[in-house]
Amino acid sequence: MERWITDTPNSARFPYYTRANADEVGPDPFSVLGWSMVWMRGCNPGVAKGFAEFGVVDVSEYDLTPLQVFGNRGGYFYNPMSLSRLMGERMPGATAEAIDKAYFGDHPGVPPYEPHPDDVNEAQSAKLAETMGWVMTTPSYPRMHAASKMALEAVANRPDFTKLSNDELVDYARRMTAKVEEAWIPYTVVCLGASLPPGAVQAICEAIGRPEDAVKVLAAVGGVESAEASFEMWDMSRIVKRSPALTAAFDAGVDGLIDRLDPSDADSAEFLALWKQLMIDHGHRAPNEWDCRPDSWTTRPGIPLGMIDRLRHQSDDRSPHLAKEHAAIERERLTKELLAIVEGDAEAHGTLTAGLSAAANWFGWREQGKYACIRLIHEVKLAMYELGQRMVDAGVITDKHLIFNLLDDELDDFLVDPGKYTDTINEREVGFKHLHEVDPPYIVGNGRGDEPIDTWPKRNSADVPKAKAGDVLQGGPGAPGVITGRARIVLDPMEAPDMELTDIMVAPTTDPAWAPLFLSVGGVVVNVGAVGSHAAIVSRELGVPCAVSVIQATSRIPEGALISVDGSTGTVTVLEL
Questions:
Q1: What digits encode the pLDDT tens for the residues 325-338?
Q2: Inter-residue long-range contacts of 130-136, CB under 8 Å, 24+ positions, other chains counted
């Protein structure tokens, strides 16, 4: 295989793209329809406009049509490395090298920044300076809140898909895609803005010799939608744990469990009410959820039920409510201590105060924006599932998920004569499965990453050298705390082994499908991510030490090795094999 059908062209103006911090958005390849419809016509133009609204660029500086910021190579999602560097060059007080350090750390093979004559732009720098001031001081972001409301209303007003014609299903999916673009504009602003307050807090902590405290004062801030599902499922697991009827139902297996429950039983009725609310609030969550092909919690309830099944075996002292309470107490204590240290320095005191307040807001808004976008993508998913199932019933395809092997541009013709696309759909399914077996290039652009897909290395290759006793793997701080335990390598949350509370989960990255596993272990290490990534945010809310961006941790750390994780510094020390 040379190329894939959704490969995007590289921008001449902003030529480099990277998988750094992209694994969390797209750990697996995106489906053909998911990319050609939702990303090319929703996410990408929304992000391009969001970068312009933040002040990084003027829309006229983009050189790809339709507007493109993110890249796709071999089905895999890529972040705009050159555009991020441009933000560093234009933002007052920042540099492209500082952006590289935040993105890549000491990762080898990163091409040096090459200045472009148009990188210096006083008008954009002035706009960025204005945005920075706003980020550090605004108590709300109405446009983001409005986008969240729009997505919630779309869910509440969802039509009965079984009563729509095939054409109406496609039209609905495209209308939801237009809403995705609308939501991504403020979400981009939030994603860019959310990095500024933690950076200010980190700078002050480093200046007073307390760098390890930065992540501690960002813990348990509350208002984080992506962490709320863990709390809700924990509460449901406590009902199961105390109820003989629910315990028996879970012992019999999660398949068909909801239909088996007796609503006349008080505990079952309480569980069903909470289950209904869980689906309303979080039913759009899914593995690789930024693509519209994978099953969600709504379409495959066994996913969240399996999480609750795992949680019901935990003792009450593992309650995330208790962990959050303890973390909040420590955060408040440290905050007072740090502010007292800088009390005589008005500028430092003001910066730290503003940074802490803004960080709490922007972390919450970041997750609010993510929920808005994924809720809308979920609407596309449900409409296309209905179309896919109809094509299964008609004998055109064998699985409803295969509908996502079509390009958006092919849908109208497909509706006229579905049968002529059957072979194409099946051929693409073979290629799509192959993409899941390879490891994409870390950086593409200017000739990098142009090698045929068939030459890419296999995923989770055994060729990566294993760490030895005494080795220290340096990552980034995710969530405070120090924990020593046995490393458990988990590549798929649905196939996670039974783990002890003293074990440390080592994962490629995490999304909401992993949430209950955080409550099953003593610590978390992930290959990618940053202080604002899912693994870090959820770990802080649940009180679990976490190190992020530990490069190739799942390949370098041997299964069962005794390791020590310091979530405040991001170090992972291999103690013994």
A1: 888 888 899 999 99
A2: 130/55, 131/54, 131/55, 131/193, 132/91, 132/92, 132/196, 135/193, 135/196, 135/197, 135/358, 135/362, 136/196, 136/197, 136/200, 136/354, 136/355, 136/358
